[in-house]
Predict the structure.
Amino acid sequence: MPEKQRILTGDTPTGRLHLGHWVGSLENRVLMQDDYDCYFILANMHALTTRAENPAQIHQDTLDIAIDFLCAGIDPQKSCIFVQSDIPAISELTFIFSMLIPFPRLMRNPTIKDEIRDKGLGDSYPFGFLLYPVGQVADILAFRPALVPVGEDQIPHLEMTREVARRFNQLYCAVDPHADDAKQVDLGGLFPIIQPKLGRVKRLVGTGGPAENGQLLKMSKSLNNSILLTEDPDSVRRKIMAMYTDPKRLKATDPGNIDNNPLWIFHDTFNPDKTWVTEAKARYQAGGIGDVECKKCLVEVLTAFIAPLHQKRLELEKNRDYVKEVLRKGAEKANLVASETLRLTKEAIYQVF
């Protein structure tokens, strides 16, 4: 049997995962475990770029995401879950790859600009914040994956990874600059030109209303418009019943607008009964069904999905030694791959004395 293709993806620990993470990437990770060699990184070093003064919280967030992975269906017997700071090769590769990225190119990364703006960093961010995208390149290329399951907002980082892989292969592996991406490794390149694997929903909206420009905001814990992947059922019910819908609809018999309406975006995304969704949309637009009834149906749908995950979280929180052992074993396996990549990288550059 041919060797399975490898995938690498993960999360920076900023708190527990929410439904947007599920449809954006995590769902794909769970589904791909049987067919791919899976590595999932908890990028705790990246969390230092904006929270260096709070390492205890980063540690807690890292454990929380590891628990979320396990609750969601990531199986440590099939997949490797590990913590970034346990893989020393990533830091050395970050230094090496930083030589292949011009500073103006780094600053053109829209994700960097968005985070500086959204987090109100001004000019006070540390140098490590600018190194963060280079570190993401190293996170990925350390494992030489074929695919990276991500949300749409990570595409700029992946494009930079592809650029670095091509540049390295050309400089140090004598790959022709005009070579097709799919043939780089066959032609002697060390790094494959990775491909993104997007989730079925590019950006899940939050439960709240739109921004000033009328566009719905994506789900985010910092915006207080998220539903956590392992949230307790009572909290899920409260959030859904308070969900933003059509502000112009004053009573159930008024015609309702389904466009730009989180209620129907969530039904389209999570409700498996597509016949009910189609019929209910028509009734909603005609004033034949109220928001409350539609919200109650959504509560049932999401509770059926989230409640088992919440119960598993309660069990794992009592058994953190097991979670830490999963991460320890994951680091052992991940270090084997990353260390080999670093060795091959050094051989290509320094030609080993």
